[in-house]
Structures are given as C-alpha cells and as structure tokens.
Amino acid sequence: MSTAETIDKATDGSSDAPLLIRREDAVTVLTLNRPAARNALAECLLDALAAAFADLHDDAETKTVVLTGAPPAFCAGHDLREMTEARAQADRGRAYFATIFAKCSAVMQAIVACPKPVIAAVDGIATAAGCQLVATCDLAVAGAGARFATPGVNIGLFCSTPMVALTRNVSPKHAMEMLLTGEMADAGRAEAIGLVNRVVPEGQALEAAMALARLIADKSPLTVKTGKEAFYRQREMPLADAYAYTARVMTENMLARDAEEGIGAFLEKRKPVWTGS
Description:
Radius of gyration: 19 Å
Low-confidence stretches: 1-14
Distance between the termini: 27 Å
Shape: globular
CATH architecture of the largest domain: Alpha-Beta Complex
CATH class of the largest domain: Alpha Beta
CATH superfamily of the largest domain: 2-enoyl-CoA Hydratase, Chain A, domain 1
Strand order of the largest sheet: 1-2-3-4-6-9
Number of helices: 12
CATH topology of the largest domain: 2-enoyl-CoA Hydratase, Chain A, domain 1
C-alpha cells in the first residue's frame, strides 16, 4: 500500500490500526496507535513502521516526517507480553526474539536512511526501544512532562539495541548512566544531555514539532536530502576522510540547480524557488 493510499483511508483517532498516517501539506505525521499498551512496539507496529518508511523514502510530496504517539505515551518499548508469549515455543522464543530485534533494528536504520528529516514529538514516556526511537530520529521535541529511560537493566534485559542510538546522541557517560541505572530522565535532563532538541509546555510537543517540520519543509528538498545523508556518513569516518568526503559532497551540491537558485536569490534579495534538482 502506498503512502497516499494509507493517508486516503482517513487514519483518525477512531482507527484501530497500529500506525496512523496523515499528511498536512508537505509534512507526514506517523502516530503510534496502541495507546492501551502505551504504544509498545509489537510486531504489527514494527511491520507498519517499516512499510511506512519504505513508502516515504520516495514520496515526493512529503518533505518532512513527524513521529508521535497516541496519548498517554510516546512509546514504552517492546511489547513484553507478546515477547513472553513467545517463550511457549519449542525454542523458548529464540527465533521470535531474533526476528523482533532484527525488525526493530531495520526500522531504526530506515529512519536514518530516510531522505526526509524525521522529528519525534514526545509527550508521556519514551522508554527502552521507545527511547531508542527518540534517539534515532533526526530531531526531537519533548513536552515538559515527557520522561525517558532505558530501564531494561531493572528487569534483567540490558537495553543493548537502544544503546546503539543512545550512544550516538549523548555523551558516553550520560548514556552509560541511563543504561546502568534504568532511571527516568525528565524532559529538562533529556534536553541537557542532547537526547532532545527542545522542551515545550506539556501537551504541545506535536504542535511544536509540526512548526519545526514546516520550517524545514520550506528548504530545498535536494539540499536537505544531501545534508542528512552526509551528516550520518561523515560521522562514522576518521577526520581527514570526513573532510575529503564532505568536500566532494559540497562540490556536487554547488553544481545543483537549487544551489544556484538559492545563492542567486540571496544575492538578489528574493525568495528562492526550489525545483529539487
């Protein structure tokens, strides 16, 4: 199913689909929709997210993506009830666990690979793989009442896959503290350690994330795509390699029509007209 077809199905709050999808102009909003389970990442929700990001990758009408959760939570991580049920299988759930963690990791990588910036709008809790989702998104806005944790250590299951995203967003010691203690961090603390970009009044995270998404959507889509890809690629390179790579990226970017138009518009003191080329 294409993104457009999903949106046309009027995904509103009355739907029982695990993921709601709607578009507002150039912004597509994805809403985790398992509120009774605090939007836990059951297999059906991971599959829906994977399909949505596959569609969004080449969706020319979408310039930015906002990811949020149906109240009262953003996302409580993996569905522990579903995982516990898998223990009844002959292999004690080994195959299921391997599958669910692989699917979750694939979704996180799809967010990074998506050429559109993805913004998390967080109200309520974001724990374990839910915290991983926040850390994976390119930007994050939190309501003042939002709370974050990687609490696996408290139940005998270290948050090893959430650790991947967490350690790429906050300093090693702050990440290790969250991982080893499992304690909740409030929104102010999350902002201070770099897990979220900004904190807004409780209940206003989605509104603020939408404003940020519209601001970015007004930029050249080619330039934003180029910049996001380069950001993640250069981060894993040694310093000299990163400079060599980004110099090549900027050279190609300068030859793009949007760069020529943008520079010309700046010099002529007018609004640029982007073509995405």
